[in-house]
């Protein structure tokens, strides 16, 4: 019985491991685009729940007015801390400062972002108090451009 099972598996195994799709797959062009199209900042904090040891991560997006200079590869931002509301208490608003914000970029498709010269890593809390940072955007095809982020103002 084992022998017949082995023979059946060996006959059908090549069909199981073979794809039916042979053509019709479009080649994807590697883009040379390495642009920043938007920038966001947020304040994050944790709140302990009624259950011991359980915490909830909360966040509040900052209001950002930005100017993206595509020619010079400079993004200038003005950051404004929003007013309090039911989800953003005054106690947390008072803690918001440039030394503990999270930043994120929207970049060209398939582009990669690398912090330069000690710039904070995107997506994590970072210190933006020096107000001037550099990031390298690398396109899908490998073209790189260095961008400068300038925090023009921070208002509470």
Walk me through this protein's architecture.
Helix content is 12%, strand content 43%. It is mostly beta strands. The chain has one domain: Immunoglobulin-like. The chain has a five-stranded mixed β-sheet, with no helix packed on it. It has a four-stranded antiparallel β-sheet with strand order 2-1-5-7, with no helix packed on it.
Brief rundown of the structure:
By secondary structure, the protein is mainly β. The chain has helices spanning 2-16, 90-93, and strands at residues 36-48, 55-61, 63-69, 74-80, 101-107, 112-116, 125-126, 132-138, 144-155.
Which properties best describe this structure?
156 residues, mainly beta, Immunoglobulin-like, 2 helices, globular
Residue stretches low in confidence (pLDDT < 50, at least 5 long) are none
Task: Classify the fold: give the CATH topology.
Answer: Immunoglobulin-like
User: How many distinct folded domains?
Assistant: 1
* Helix amount: 10-25%
Shape: globular
Mean pLDDT: 88
Strand arrangement, major sheet: 3-4-9-8-6
The strand count comes to 9
What is the terminal-to-terminal distance?
78 Å
The major pleated sheet works out as: 5 strands, mixed
Q: What is the radius of gyration?
A: 25 Å
């Amino acid at each position: 019985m084992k022998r017949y099972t082995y023979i059946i598996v060996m006959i059908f195994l090549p069909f199981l491991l073979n794809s039916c799709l042979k053509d019709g797959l479009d080649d994807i062009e590697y883009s040379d685009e390495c642009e920043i199209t938007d920038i966001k900042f947020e304040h994050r904090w944790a709140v302990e729940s009624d259950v011991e040891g359980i915490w909830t991560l909360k966040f509040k997006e900052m209001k950002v007015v930005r100017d993206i200079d595509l020619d010079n590869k400079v993004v200038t931002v003005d950051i404004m801390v929003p007013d309090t509301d039911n989800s953003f208490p005054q106690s947390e608003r008072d803690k918001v400062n440039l030394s503990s914000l999270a930043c994120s970029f929207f970049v060209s498709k398939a582009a990669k972002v690398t912090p330069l010269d000690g710039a904070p890593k995107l997506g994590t809390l970072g210190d933006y108090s020096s107000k001037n940072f550099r990031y390298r955007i690398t396109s899908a095809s490998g073209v790189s451009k260095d961008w400068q982020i300038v925090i023009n103002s921070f208002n509470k």
